[in-house]
């Protein structure tokens, strides 16, 4: 396993690889949306068609969960979530940056003891291949869905925990607690496992692992797209359960 550079700030430790990957993912999404939405016209061209297709696709996700007026409020959120996770998932398939450390780097948390295990330092990977990122995103969606439900109808929010029977309260609580855990673990496990296998195949002899490597990279692109879709759908499901009319 490659070493991960870390920095300490205000008593907290930050993973440099994750910060680079997350910032790059966000910048790529920003740049893509900026380029695809320049010079909009009534008769859309190629770039505008691509953006409109993506918006229609995500609008279909929100429309499945909420009424038309309500779903429009969450379109920007769902679009941003889908694009960020999609780009973050695919970055590790396309780009993995590692370097060789020739000596300890205390400022990045790399010690001589670490170098005895390996001298390979990871500088870039998919942010979603780290469980801390997926837990943070799933946790934020979990908290927001509850706050949105309370803000819309405090009494209705509390009543759903005892429906259809009061003795189902513990079951509802377990269900709510398990949602962010499964939401985060599903995304992380799929992306992490894919990157680990890519690293293993990359270290092998090209004559034996070359074809399996390219085949798995192609499959990883498919998995990355599917997982971005699933994460966004589940996010909207959890929010719709709290703010939906039914």
Automatic annotation (TrEMBL):
Can you say where in the cell this protein is located? Cell membrane; Membrane
| Transmembrane feature ranges | 16-37, 74-99, 131-151, 187-208, 214-240
InterPro entries assigned: ATP_syn_F0_a_bact/chloroplast, ATP_synth_F0_asu, ATP_synth_F0_asu_AS, F0_ATP_A_sf
Report the membrane topology from the UniProt record: Multi-pass membrane protein
Residues forming coiled coils: none
Q: Which CDD domains match?
A: ATP-synt_Fo_a_6
Q: Which UniProt keywords apply?
A: ATP synthesis, Cell membrane, CF(0), Hydrogen ion transport, Ion transport, Membrane, Transmembrane, Transmembrane helix, Transport
Q: Which SUPFAM superfamilies match?
A: F1F0 ATP synthase subunit A
Gene3D superfamilies named in the record: ATP synthase, F0 complex, subunit A (1.20.120.220)
Superkingdom of origin organism:
Bacteria
Alphabetical list of Pfam families matching this protein = ATP-synt_A
UniProt function note: Key component of the proton channel; it plays a direct role in the translocation of protons across the membrane.
- What family does the entry list? Belongs to the ATPase A chain family.
Query: Which named protein is this?
Result: ATP synthase subunit a
């Amino acid at each position: 396993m490659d070493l991960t550079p870390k920095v300490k700030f205000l008593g907290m430790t930050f993973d440099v690889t994750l910060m680079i990957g997350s910032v790059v993912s966000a910048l790529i999404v920003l740049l893509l949306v900026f380029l695809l939405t320049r010079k909009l016209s009534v008769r859309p061209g190629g770039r505008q068609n691509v953006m409109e297709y993506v918006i229609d696709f995500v609008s279909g996700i929100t429309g499945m969960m909420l009424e038309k007026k309500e779903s429009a409020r969450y379109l920007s959120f769902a679009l941003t979530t889908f694009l960020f996770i999609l780009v973050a998932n695919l970055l590790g398939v396309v780009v993995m940056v590692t370097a060789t450390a020739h000596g300890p780097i205390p400022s990045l948390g790399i010690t001589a003891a670490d170098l005895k295990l390996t001298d390979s330092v990871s500088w870039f990977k998919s942010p979603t291949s780290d469980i801390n990122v997926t837990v943070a995103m799933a946790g934020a969606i979990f908290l927001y869905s509850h706050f949105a439900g309370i803000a819309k109808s405090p009494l209705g929010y509390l009543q759903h925990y005892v429906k259809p029977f009061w003795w189902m309260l513990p079951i509802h609580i377990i269900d709510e607690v398990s949602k962010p855990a499964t939401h985060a673990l599903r995304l992380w496990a799929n992306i992490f496992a894919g990157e680990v296998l890519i690293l293993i195949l990359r270290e092998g002899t090209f004559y034996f692992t070359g074809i399996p490597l390219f085949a798995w990279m192609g499959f990883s692109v498919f998995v990355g797209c599917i997982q971005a879709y699933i994460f966004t759908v589940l996010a909207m499901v959890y929010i719709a359960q709290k703010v939906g009319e039914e």
